[in-house]
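User: I'm writing a tutorial on reading structure tokens. Could you give me a worked example: one chain, its sequence, then its tokens, then a sentence or two explaining what the tokens reveal?
Assistant: Sure. Here is the example chain.
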Amino acid sequence: MSDDGRASQQCVTVAAKARRISGLVFRTFSSRRIKGILTMYKAIIRPIVEYATPVWSPCQKKDIAEVEQVQRRITKRIKSIQHLTYEARLRLLKLPTLEKRRLYFDLLECYKIVHGLVRSEISKVIALSEHNTRGYRCKLTSSSKTARLNVRKYFFSERVLSIWNALPVEVLKQDNYDAFKLAIRKHLDV
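And here are its predicted structure tokens:
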């Protein structure tokens, strides 16, 4: 994070590292088959752009586009589908956008924090509601005031609150982490 609370430099750094690694992969392997490229992408490149995203998740459109460009370029390198649009390539490859994946990781991290699976200072700020009507026992409440400034509006504790509370109660009422993971994957289609 920079002094002004933005993650723009992190987005540029991560995207550049992923582009360097993908360039190395494409120079090393001549195959442009779907299975080979997808395997290399999922195993080597995607973890670079997804590492610790709950902390530095981009909020500005230019930053989101910078990170998404990594996946866009890699799917474009697959010869048999390079003529398709980005959205069509993603559907054909059954890949979600990186933005949707970041949302998925945010919700998983939130579940771990709220249910005490990880120690975090943020557990003092967000917690499950004490009200027990209409599924509110599953909803999150915040002990901090609503963010007035854009600097804080995109922090994890602020951005995850409304997304979590918009989830269906069936997804939120999962007994364990693995069941929640499956339910959220199905709900988000990740």
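What the tokens reveal: The chain has two domains: 8-95, 102-188. The first helix runs from residue 8 to 28.
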